[in-house]
Amino acid sequence: MTNAPNPRPTPVGDAADPLDFSGSVVLVTGGSRGIGRGISEAFLGHGADVVICGRNEPDELPSSGGREARFVAADVRDATAVDALISDIEATEGRLDVVVNNAGGAPHVDAAEVSPRFHEAIIALNLTAPLHVAQRANRVMRTQDTGGSIINIASVSGVRPSPGTAAYGAAKAGLIGLTQSLAVEWAPKVRLNAVVAGLIETEQAHLHYGDEEGVAAVAATVPLGRMGTPTDLANACVFLASPLASYVTGSTLTVHGGGERPAFLEEAQVDHEDCS
Question: Which one is catalytic: 21, 168, 186, 209?
C-alpha cells in the first residue's frame, strides 16, 4: 500500500468533462459480446482506448464513433496468459487505467449430478480469473500517478439463492467479498467496486429464459417492467471508473431494476390495494 492519494474528482459543472476517457486505456475481459460488448462500446464512445480479450477473436470487434477495440487472445483462467495479456497492454498502450472483469457465466445444471471438475471450472472462471487479472493490473496501476479502477461484474445470483447455477452463485458471492477486501488492501491508488447485475437481456437470453414470450414473462416480474440491457450495466461501469466516483471504493452497485417481486405476494390471500 502506498500513501499517495487517489486523484481528486473533477468538480461537477467544471469545464472539463468527468466522463471523458480520452487518453485512458480500458481492459474489458470477455468484451466481444453481450454485456462485455456493451461495456466496451460505452468506453469507446467516451473516448477510451479499449482492449478486449477472450479465447477466440470475434468476427466483429466492438466499435463506436468510428473507433474500434483491440483484441488480445487470452484465457483469463490461466495466470500465465493473464500475465502475457497485461504485459502486452503495457508494451503497446503504455498504461492501464481501468479493468472491467466481465468474463464469466455458467450453464444451468443440477449441482447434485455434475462432476467436481465442472464446479472447479465455474469457480475458476467467475472468481479465480478476476483475481488473477486484478492482481496483475494492480502492479501496473499502482505505479501510475493517477492510479486505476477495477470493476468486477457480479450477479444477483451471488446475493440470493441460485438454484441451477449453485457454483456460479457461490463464485459471484466470493467476487463481491474479494472486491471489498482488495479495495482495502490496494487503497488509495487503486479503487475496486462490484456491479451486481440483475436480469439482463442479451443475444443469449433465450438460453436462460426461452422464446420471446418467456423473456417477456420474466421481464414482467421486474419492478421497473423490463429486463436490463448491456447499456444499463455499461453506464454503471463508466460512472464507477470516472472521477465522479473517486471516493467510491469497496462498494457494490446493484443494477437490477428493483429486483424480483417476492413470490409470496402472488399467493397471499390479501387484497393489497385495500391495505394502502
Answer: 168
